[in-house]
Design goal:
By secondary structure, the protein is α+β, with helices and mostly antiparallel strands. The chain is about 40% helix and about 15% strand. The chain has 17 helices and 17 strands. Strands 1-3-2-8-10-9-16-17-13-11-12 form an eleven-stranded mixed beta sheet, sandwiched between helices. Strands 4-5 form a two-stranded antiparallel ribbon. It has a two-stranded antiparallel ribbon with strand order 6-7. Strand 6 and strand 7 form a beta hairpin. The protein is globular and about 60 Å long. The mean pLDDT is about 100.
Length: about 475
């Protein structure tokens, strides 16, 4: 029988639909594994055992009654704890939200995955209020990288990355404001998707900066990522930012690979802020795809600065009342960034938004000439937990914010991006490449990720230490 620790979502669901494996067995195996080893990784903040077992029983009953079964039949999954799960307070990584009443309904994306047959087994650790790149949470502890437990998992969806990379579940959901899916996917060696801004509804999730926030999946293969993404798609009027677009399936296009796509490598700012380990990984992708063209994303550094200004201001505004009334209940690092956001002059925010429009128009024009732009996903592999500074091409830079150097200019204007992970030899930490496509062309980015996987460049095995 296949090792359920390493079985991906598509393969597991196929076995459940074929009645070679029950959903109950798959979910019990996941719960047992979480109980046995998650104390090493600190990925879960709540395990929804009774709910999961009841849901698994319902999936099996439907199959026994002759139902065809969904594309994710019996697949255990877990979600960043800013998604509503009925019966749990939606923590969003905070102490303050513990006092909130339990959610009465699941977030819409949780509902959609379960409608496809998947089974939610719990909520996952994150940076407080999604403001961070490391998941070193002052209230719930740091999530640890399964490839080296002394290193960060990335953030703010660090628990989502840790759970998938350790083989606790094959599929997780996270959120991405400035890189919070892509950074942990890169550092933990996973595939991760940040869709186009407005593609997936955020109904039933706790936002950080509403004009930036995206939701999306993390998985251990391009196929699983696309399968989950297709299950999540669809408009929703309750999220005013959600585009009223029809479902555009991506999974069936993966077999096309990169054929026919015009692909370029990001130069300029991106080349300057790619460290040596990331440069080696990027070169592997360049060679596999046969790339010869370089494009420069203009003013990417200024875009990152403007993204900081707007997210600080939006986050500070959202939490203003609690900052006044109970400042000591915040993680101090998060609190101080939010306070700084409340002090940003309106003039700066307005100017940043004006620049944002110019930048969107300018960068979008690049896609008249190319279909996909490839870069490193993070400037370096995972740093040590507690590390405050890191070396980047001979310069000492702040470790936490610098993990978003290559992701922030992309989410600033909501472009779709996929991280494809590259496993480095000799036990070295993995690192990912970022595949950026034109608005609404998630299928292009997923096709390139699938091509890199088919070429043997991108892969996301369960961390060796988690299988010991």
């Amino acid at each position: 029988m296949a090792d359920l620790r390493t079985l991906g979502a598509a393969a597991l669901a196929q076995r459940v639909r074929d009645r070679q494996l029950t959903a109950m067995a798959a979910v019990r195996a996941a719960l047992t594994r979480i109980d046995a080893i998650d104390d090493r990784y600190n990925s879960f903040t709540a395990v929804t055992r009774e709910r999961a077992l009841a849901r698994a029983a319902a999936v099996d009953a439907a199959l026994a009654a002759g139902a065809a079964g969904g594309p994710l039949a019996g697949v255990p999954f877990a979600v960043k704890n800013l998604f509503d799960l009925a019966g749990l307070p939606t923590l969003a990584g905070s102490k303050i939200n513990r006092e909130h009443p339990p959610a009465t309904h699941d977030a819409l994306l949780v509902q959609r995955l379960e409608a496809a047959g998947a089974v939610c087994v719990g909520a996952l650790n994150m940076d407080e209020y999604a403001y961070g790149f490391t998941t070193e949470n002052a209230h719930y502890g740091a999530s640890r990288n399964p490839h080296d437990v002394e290193c960060i998992a990335g953030g703010s969806s660090g628990g989502s990355a840790t759970a998938a990379a350790a083989g606790l579940v094959p599929l997780t959901l996270g959120s991405d404001t400035n890189g919070s899916i892509r950074v942990p996917a890169s550092l933990c060696g996973l595939f991760g998707l940040k869709p186009t801004y407005g593609r997936l509804p955020r109904t039933g999730s706790y936002l950080f900066a509403a004009s930036f926030d995206h939701l999306g999946p993390l998985a251990r293969s391009a196929e699983d990522l696309a399968l989950a993404y297709d299950a999540l798609q669809g408009p929703d009027a309750q999220d005013p930012a959600c585009a009223q677009r029809a479902v555009e399936p991506a999974a069936p296009t993966l077999a096309q690979g990169a054929s026919g796509l015009r692909i370029a490598v990001a130069g300029g700012w991106y080349a300057q802020n790619t460290g040596p380990e990331a440069a080696v990984v990027l070169q592997q992708a360049v060679q596999a795809l046969g790339l010869t063209r370089t494009v420069e994303i203009p003013e990417a550094g200024r875009a990152r600065a403007a993204a900081f200004v707007i997210t600080m201001a939006e986050g500070g505004n959202l939490h203003f009342a609690d900052l006044q009334s109970r400042p000591l209940d915040f993680d101090f690092a998060t609190r101080d960034r939010f306070i700084a956001g409340t002090l940003v002059p309106a003039h700066y925010v307005v100017q940043a938004q004006r620049f944002r429009q110019w930048y969107r128009n300018t960068v979008t024009k690049l896609f008249d000439e190319v279909d996909v732009i490839v870069s490193a996903a993070t400037p370096v592999p995972a740093t040590r937990i507690g590390q405050t500074m890191m070396d980047l091409n001979g310069q000492q830079v702040a470790a936490r914010p610098s993990m978003g150097l290559l992701t922030q200019p992309i989410s600033f204007i909501g472009l779709p991006a996929v991280v494809a992970p590259v496993q480095r030899p000799g036990g070295q930490l993995p690192i990912g490449v970022q595949i950026v496509a034109a608005p609404w062309r998630e299928d292009h980015a997923l096709r390139v990720a699938a091509a890199l996987q088919a070429a043997g460049v991108a892969s996301a095995p369960v961390a060796a230490g988690a299988l010991a």
